[in-house]
Amino acid sequence: MTRHQTHRWPQPLPGNERRLWFGGDYNPDQWPEEVWDEDVRLMRRAGVNLVSVGIFSWANIEVSDGVFEFGWLDRIVRKLGDAGIAVDLASATASPPMWLTQAHPEVLWRDERGDVCWPGARQHWRATSPVFRRYALRLCRAMAEHYRGNPAVVAWHVNNEYGCHNRFDYSDDAAAAFRRWCERRYGSIETVNEAWGTSFWAQRMGDFSEILPPRFIGDGNFMNPGKLLDFKRFSSDALKEFFIAERDALAAITPDRPLTTNFMVSAGGMGLDYDDWGGEVDFVSNDHYVTPGEAHLDELAYSSSLVDGIARKRPWFLMEQSTGAVNWRPINYRKESGELIRDSLAHVAMGADAICYFQWRQSRAGAEKFHSAMVPHAGEHSEIFRDVCTLGEDLRILSREGVPGTTLARSRIALVVDYQSEWASEHSATPTQAVRHWTEPLDWFRALQDVGVTADVVPVAGDWASYEAVVLPSVFMLDEATSQRVRAYVEAGGTLLVTYYTGIVDERDHVWLGGYPGSIGDVVGVRSEEFAPMGDDYPGVPDRLALDNGAVAHDLADRITEVAPGVRVLARYVDASRTGMDAIPAITVNGFGRGSCVYVGCRLGRGGLAASLPMMLDAVAFAMDERACSPDGPRGAVMRVERRGEDGRRFVFSFNRTDERVRTMVEGRVLLASLAEVDEQGGEAILEPHGAIVTRVA
């Protein structure tokens, strides 16, 4: 995938050395000015060296059509700069002011039923509106002209979380833009008809003017899956095009300032094709909010690894996270003691050179008043603020030791993720609604952690072919070019692990014929004729399927009916003979060229995968790393991650993944110990729950 932008990182303020950036979103216009000096005092106390300013300030900057008031913003930018705190300045275009939408209601997006998204929240604009673009770019140019050369401004924060609320728009503007997008992509209406399979249900079109967005078609009906997939592609592209317009308007006036926008990468956050977007920013930024409960640390590490993959192992920026509870879930759980520090160190371990939060001071009013912040409602005399100060000192130590500029060390295993496979698997007419692409990579990441391996999460367009082993976890869509990449990788000696629901359709969402997985059947060496879904929605239907290695399949299995010569069956199903699944192969290994391929023909979940992985890895002679083992705990109790510099610097981060105390080996000189007791002479440490240590090895 082409990367259009070169990597440019925000540089420190004049007279300062490069450090890990630390801070958060700052909304001074929500507070009286007498609070600002208190904010700056507390920021200095906490070690904050950067804040993002003006993200939702359009109405306070352009107070009426063409009337700009920069005075308040100038004053706070000056205060921050004088205190040595850099500013990541927003374009302020995230939400239009009331005067604009009142004068131009045609900029408001519409849902699939045609209802207008009225002002009252945020992101109530359509990406395809020429009127909204005109006003937004005027604001961008005004901001850039006013702050060009300002030494406190080190980066541009373009818009905010594109597509968080306005991912899909079904307005007439969007319909016209979708037609143009289809014409550019396909060239002729007949090619669109072929791609969308419009011979089915008499949906054939005779002209591009007949193309409509996938608007409401009645409850219980099924939208054309080809159109739906392309509309998701179009929607990502339309928002990206708007970002590029904003980016270029700012860059034309301030070419010396790097630009970014904050992605929303998480295990299930696959609304936009962030790998495609990653080539359009000067540095990748992400907003990440943890999954509560037992998946907390693993999902964080998985998501951060994916951001690292999108950034192509260049330093990336954690733009938002929470110090404690969020405000937007049905139940907003607090973080447990130690998690605030542990979570940030985990992001650093996975490649982040900036640790920021939403937000600096917790709001008194508005929809996010119960969202936690660096300065909570309780003020500076609080556990959260004390932990923020401790974290600031920790990041200062890591900066002094040379962590900035180092990168996440490559794993031996790449775990492939594909945004468009997720989009295609989301259709409402599939073998089972219980299966999507995104859940399988997370299960594999966690299962690999359980056996002591921290995988790299790599986008499908990334450089996964250079890894010792590659996992294709339910990569539903494989086009011909990617299928050939897979084939060439294994032929050249690579080790491949493939699961059910991989290589089912091509880039048009057309099924590969000849049995599953159609696009790489020769590589895996097996052929399935049909899916065997499992569930509990009807009495008497199968809800699980036992394997003879002790694992249990659920949700979906392949009914493998052919096995190529030379394929070795590692596990089979054990079931009643009447079902036709008894003794059917479940896990196999095949030699292909100089390499080998393991095929997992069912959904095993984290537990079943972890139980089966030693057998699978042994079958392909993949030796596991013993350094992540706890002497008195289960394998995988400690997550071990390295960052390395080109000059030989090496930093080891170790995290307790359990709710119990665990021991781990200590390599090198201890820099930080959070909820940990270290015996450097004995070469061991005891990690409490949420405990972490960071050492410098070289």
From TrEMBL:
Name of this chain's protein: Beta-galactosidase
Domain Glycoside hydrolase family 42 N-terminal: 25-396
Domain (Beta-galactosidase trimerisation): residue spans on this chain: 412-615
UniProt lineage: Bacteria, Bacillati, Actinomycetota, Actinomycetes, Bifidobacteriales
Alphabetized UniProt keyword annotations: Glycosidase, Hydrolase
GO biological process, one term: carbohydrate metabolic process
Record-listed E.C. numbers: 3.2.1.23
Species per Swiss-Prot/TrEMBL record: Bifidobacterium mongoliense DSM 21395
Family to which the UniProt record says this protein belongs: Belongs to the glycosyl hydrolase 42 family.
Active site (catalytic residues): E161 (proton donor), E320 (nucleophile)
A Pfam family it matches: Glyco_hydro_42M
Catalytic activity: Hydrolysis of terminal non-reducing beta-D-galactose residues in beta-D-galactosides
GO CC terms in record: beta-galactosidase complex
Residue numbers binding substrate: R122, N160, W328
Top-level lineage group: Bacteria
Enzyme class: hydrolase
Annotated GO MF terms: beta-galactosidase activity
